[in-house]
Amino acid sequence: MFSKILIPTDGSVIANAAARKGVEFAKQVGAEVIALFVAPNYQYPVYVEIVPPSYPNEEEYKASIKRTGETFIKAIADMAAANGVKFSSHSMFSDTTALCIVQAAQEHGCDMIFMGSHGRSGWGQLLLGSVTAKVLSACHIPVLVYRLQAEPGDKAA
């Protein structure tokens, strides 16, 4: 049925819960998991004439965000290893997260995307996170949207 499942993450509580369920689903159907972390591009400080000394340059930003993404992906890798699920990962920088998720699924030959209903920026979206909604509208493969059944931190999630 499904052989490769893309699981995007932003490290949020909902993304982690979705990843856990996505790995469990992959185990049930015998699929491989590909984790994806998409970070926003570096933004130059255009609001000031002089860049503050504490503001990171582009290389520092990318190195820091890459380490953060590796931490998020490692959590999924550990889940996959614990469940005996084949795993690989990919990270990228882009300001069009949803399109990157869809493109990554196509490039890696995925036949499903398993993602959370909201991410870090999703609390303001009452029904569905904006990235998730964009993935749903742009994607031509099945997208399983995992919604938490309890508040973050509850054992029932």
UniProtKB/TrEMBL annotation:
Q: Which Pfam families match?
A: Usp
UspA domain: which residues? 1-147
Instruction: State the family named in the UniProt similarity comment for this chain.
Output: Belongs to the universal stress protein A family.
Q: What is this protein called?
A: Universal stress protein
Source organism of this protein record: Undibacterium arcticum
Lineage per the UniProt record: Bacteria, Pseudomonadati, Pseudomonadota, Betaproteobacteria, Burkholderiales
